[in-house]
From TrEMBL:
PANTHER family: ABC TRANSPORTER PERMEASE PROTEIN (PTHR11795:SF447), BRANCHED-CHAIN AMINO ACID TRANSPORT SYSTEM PERMEASE PROTEIN LIVH (PTHR11795). Pfam families: BPD_transp_2 (PF02653). The chain crosses the membrane at residues 18-41, 61-86, 98-118, 138-158, 187-206, 226-248, 260-285. GO terms for biological process: amino acid transport. It is a multi-pass membrane protein. GO terms for cellular component: plasma membrane. Its main location: membrane. One of its GO terms (molecular function) is transmembrane transporter activity. The keyword Kinase does not apply. Belongs to the binding-protein-dependent transport system permease family. LivHM subfamily. It comes from the Bacteria. This is Branched-chain amino acid transport system permease protein. It is found in: Cell membrane.
């Protein structure tokens, strides 16, 4: 029984870390991994989704509806920002870094001024599951399932629908897509909006588990960039293996030595992977399959 408890605890920690990495990096993977835009405002889109989710949930609507509302609002905000700012900075990565950093500062300070330094949370639903005397959050188990479902949904969207085909064509060969009659400006806007909506979804999903503060996006952004960089340019080939490897390292070190060593191990693993595989896991896996 003791062995089963230990194994379940390790598996739970791995699943929790894996879910966090996948859900938090999905929006960044679309915007950065596919579009090449280094979006330093990713954390603020997450914060937007979390704040909207908490606000809607406190009005008495179901949590699922609140989470969807958070994702939709973040997506709409992302489309507006893409139209006004990002659209003029494609193929100018340094300028996009500065612009999105500025948006990040404006959003954080704006929320701080308007809504204050903290916001009432909504509490974690579903209670706990008891295994051998140890309690585990049932909602965290839901997040693990949500992470897998999100990966499957993104794969189907980008590889099994017309929108996905046109979006990938627009991003990879914009001149050819434009020559074939595709409204590339509209596709860029929709793709960026999708990335922002996924960030809002991450905020909504984790809103019940976190303290609601204007700087809450910083909790996500490091792990998001780490996972996308390790995974490489192809978000479907690289993101899931990268999240699994990093989650295993983080969960193991956290179980043995504590949270701090888990974070340190995560960053050391990133440095090693980037040094050995500068193209990320996706480039290595594709090269190996040829």
């Amino acid at each position: 029984m003791a062995l089963f408890q230990t194994a379940f605890a390790m598996l739970y920690q791995f699943g929790d870390a894996f879910a966090f990495l996948v859900i938090s990096c999905a929006g960044l993977a679309v915007i950065f991994g596919m579009m090449g835009v280094i979006n330093l405002a990713h954390g603020e889109f997450i914060m937007c989704g979390a704040y909207v989710t908490a606000t809607v949930a406190r009005e008495g609507l179901p949590l699922v509806v609140a989470i969807i509302a958070g994702a939709v609002v973040a997506g709409l905000v992302g489309m507006v920002i893409e139209r006004l700012v990002i659209r003029h900075l494609y193929h100018r990565p340094l300028d996009s870094i500065i612009a999105t950093w500025g948006i990040s500062l404006i959003a954080t300070q704006g929320v701080l001024i308007v809504l204050g330094s903290t916001m009432a949370g909504i509490g974690t639903p579903l209670g706990a599951v008891t295994i051998g005397g140890d309690s585990y959050s049932a909602y965290r188990l839901v997040l693990m399932v949500a992470a897998i479902a999100l990966l499957a949904a993104l794969y189907l969207l980008f590889y099994r629908t017309r929108f996905g085909v046109v979006a990938r064509a627009t991003i990879q060969k914009p001149d050819m897509a434009r020559a074939l009659g595709v409204d590339t400006g509209r596709m860029y806007g929709l793709t960026f909006g999708l990335g922002a909506a996924l960030a809002g979804l991450a905020g909504g999903l984790y809103a019940p588990t976190m303290t609601m503060v204007p700087t809450m996006g910083a909790t996500f952004i490091v792990e998001s960039f780490v996972t996308v960089v390790v995974g490489g340019a192809d978000i479907f080939v690289g993101a899931a293996p990268a999240a699994a490897i990093l989650a295993l390292i983080r969960a193991t070190l956290t179980a043995w030595y504590g949270q701090l060593f888990g974070q340190i191990g995560l960053l050391v693993a990133v440095i090693v992977v980037i040094r050995i595989l500068p193209g990320g896991l996706s480039a290595w896996l594709k090269r190996g399959s040829r």
